[in-house]
Amino acid sequence: MTKISAILPVKTRGRHYADNIARCDILFSSLRRFTSPDTFDKILIVVPHDEFEDAKRYARAWSDFPVEVIDESVHMTAFGDFNQRHQIRPWHRQQIIKLYTPALIDTEFFMIFDPDVFAIHPFGSDDLIVDGRALTYCQPRMREPHLWRPSAGLLHQDPHLDRDGIWWTPAILSSTLCRALHRRLEELYGDSWMRVLLANYMIDWTEYTLYWLNAEREGLLDRYHVPPAPGQRSLHAPDSVWYAGRDGRNLDDWPAGDYLAEGGDGLFAVVQSNTFIAPDRVVRKLEPFFPITLQPYDRHESLAVRGAELYSAVARRGIRLLRRLRGQA
After folding, report:
1. Which tens digit of pLDDT belongs to each residue from 67-118?
2. Under 8 Å between Cβ of 55 and 45
3. pTM for the model
4. C-alpha radius of gyration, the chain, whole number
5. Going along the chain, which residue ranges are E strands?
6. For the chain, which domains are there?
């Protein structure tokens, strides 16, 4: 059996992160129900330095899986060089962590989780890696053209918006293709790939669009990725809860019974954290299908942190507008 690694970047402070420990509890409860710890070579939980000790304590609840807690400051030292408020985008930094994963693992393929992901059907590594290729869920690029275009611009290539491309987390990436992306960015810009991405905080590149576009340019997609065969479950459920709707009604309306039924499609689903739907509502939705245990945790909701993040976003918009007025972008 070919094992797979996994990466799970976690923050517990700021914006919509305060309930991420509970979301991780839901994820690991689903993994206990639908797979085995032996599926994974290791599951890396990467956290900011100031959350490292807390994360190690919380991770004891998931120790039946091969979990390792990683302090991001040990590996992502370049983060310290981009520390002005408008340069700090947690969304981008978590994507950089995902692209850095090959330096931390020994397997060719790795699964990317976020805390708001959960499994909905049984799977093993052979369901994820099919004949040496990663099971991949694709969608039309025109669903998110505002994310494909910036990445294509950064790589100096066409976004090919008429084609399909890899969809969002959960996803399975190749270490070989990640390293190929690193090399391409360094060839284009003459700096480390991580610094190149950090320096481009003003544009909405993403880890998946960069990865896919570069692998496409190199003609390597079919060697490392494969769609589900007829009759095989896809990586994603047909739909997830990407938006809350009024008072979270999209979760209420989400047909869990259909998706988790024996004939339902998809191995994973998402109740996106930025919907701010409380974890206990997610638990009530999913508990009829698998047992879920939530551990006590401290909620870190700081108005100062939220204010700093709001300032960062406003500052970036102001800089972007100024550049447009000057004809720079």
Report:
1. 999 999 999 998 888 887 677 778 889 999 999 999 999 999 999 999 999 9
2. yes
3. 0.92
4. 19
5. 4-9, 40-47, 67-71, 109-112, 117-119, 129-130, 133-135, 138-140, 164-166, 171-174, 225-226, 268-270
6. 4-235 (3.90.550)
